[in-house]
Specification:
The protein is an alpha/beta fold. It folds into 2 domains: 2-167 and 338-387, no CATH class; 176-288, no CATH class. It is built from 13 helices and 19 strands.
Length: 388
């Protein structure tokens, strides 16, 4: 999937994102408070509505009362999905909200089209699927989720479920308990790309599969990691018997690194947050399937200056296949990413606009990245990015 345009009308204080265009690689820049993080969260939450998963209930409830429209490409076709969500009965907001017993169903209206063809037209009174009226289905779930097994709607569910990457904000625990039966599942993977396509696979599990089934792919990750951290001599997934398993079966699996001058292997849980974060990026994104949408808020978070160059180079190297929607305040990151990828976020009151940097005359001239960064922070659109 590749998102082409996105617009959002929030329930809280009328927060509105005017229609924004998205490219293959998007770096959202702007002063604090302009709305960069809200844009990323809104996209994540809309995707959660599409899939309707129980794990994402909190994200879904957080945008009750909102409306949105998202246009995207998938398998050579262009779709548009727009919906209006029922508001909370009681007091609520976009940033917090629990399911109340008296809450109405989630979906008020919903429309899905592919080109000129209307696939779904849904209101509280009727439900049209491909022009045919069908029994009204549960409005607690999006049409994409409730009709995911229908041949007409299935491609949309596949697009959202396989193409949105949302697991970059929370690091995994020390390790993962592996049951012996896990070995039987390995036969389903014929390539490193098959492993990468399992976006929900936990970090340690994905690394284990790459190391044992596709060592050349794992070696690529190791080489890229050593580029950022030259003192790292080796990376491996460790299998360890764990006495706490009362049934006596299974073992613990975790990533670890060997650093020069240090005798013991350093477990993932004991690494610095920057080392964890970059290793997380490498394992999950190196073999992610084309069309994956990667959402990262504050890219520089937890990353030291020493590894920012390697991280930036790695993400740009994956840009032809993956769609990136990133935010950052860090001068180095902004300088190193070509200005053609900059999206300047501005806000006036509760209305947010996103401008392509190359549409601003002062940014369109052929200059060095550093000079363009200097011009960026002096632009009225940037300097006065938040207005009452």
């Amino acid at each position: 999937m590749r998102i082409l345009t996105f617009e959002f009308q929030g329930a809280q204080h009328g927060w509105t994102l005017e229609p924004m265009e998205l490219d293959g690689f998007n770096l959202l820049v702007g002063v604090s408070g302009a709305g960069k993080t809200r844009i990323v969260r809104a996209i994540e939450r809309v995707c959660a509505v599409a899939l309707g998963s129980k794990e994402a209930e909190e994200s879904i409830e957080a945008i009750r009362g909102s409306s949105f429209a998202i246009r995207f490409e998938h398998d050579g076709l262009t779709y548009r999905w727009e919906a209006e969500l029922e508001p909370h009965v009681g007091r609520g907001s976009e940033d917090s909200g629990g399911l109340l017993s008296a809450e109405p169903p989630l979906i008020r209206t919903e429309r899905i089209s592919q080109g000129e063809r209307t696939i779904v037209d849904r209101t509280p009174e009727r439900f049209l699927l491909d022009g045919r009226e069908i029994p009204k289905l549960d409005r607690a779930t999006s049409a994409i989720a409730v009709l995911k097994e229908d041949a007409v709607v299935e491609p949309l569910y596949v697009a959202f479920s396989r193409s949105i990457f949302q697991a970059l904000d929370t690091f995994p625990p020390f390790g993962i308990r592996r049951d012996p039966s896990f070995h039987k599942q390995r036969q389903i993977y014929n390539s490193a790309s098959d492993v990468g396509a399992r976006l929900s696979l936990a970090l340690h599990s994905k690394a284990e599969l790459l190391q044992e089934l596709f060592p050349e792919a794992f070696a690529e990750i190791k080489e890229a990691y050593q580029d950022a951290f030259p003192t790292i001599e080796d990376i491996k997934v460790i299998h360890q018997n764990f006495p706490a398993f009362k049934d006596g079966e299974g073992y613990l699996v975790y990533l670890a690194v060997k650093e020069s001058g240090v005798d013991e292997w350093i477990a993932f849980a004991d690494m610095s947050s920057g080392m964890q974060r970059y290793l997380y990026f490498l394992v999950h994104l190196s073999f992610a399937p084309p069309g994956t949408v990667v959402l990262i808020d504050e890219l520089e978070s937890s990353l030291g200056v020493n590894c920012l160059p390697a991280v930036t180079r790695f993400l740009l190297s994956r840009a032809p296949d993956l769609q990136f929607i990133l935010t950052s305040h860090h001068p180095y990151i902004i300088e190193q990413i070509p200005p053609t990828h900059w999206k300047i976020v501005t806000r006036k009151g509760s209305r947010v606009r996103v401008l392509d940097a190359d549409t601003i005359p002062a940014m369109a001239e052929d200059r060095s990245h550093l000079d363009r960064f200097t011009r960026l922070i002096n632009l009225p659109e940037y300097e006065h990015g938040v207005q009452g």
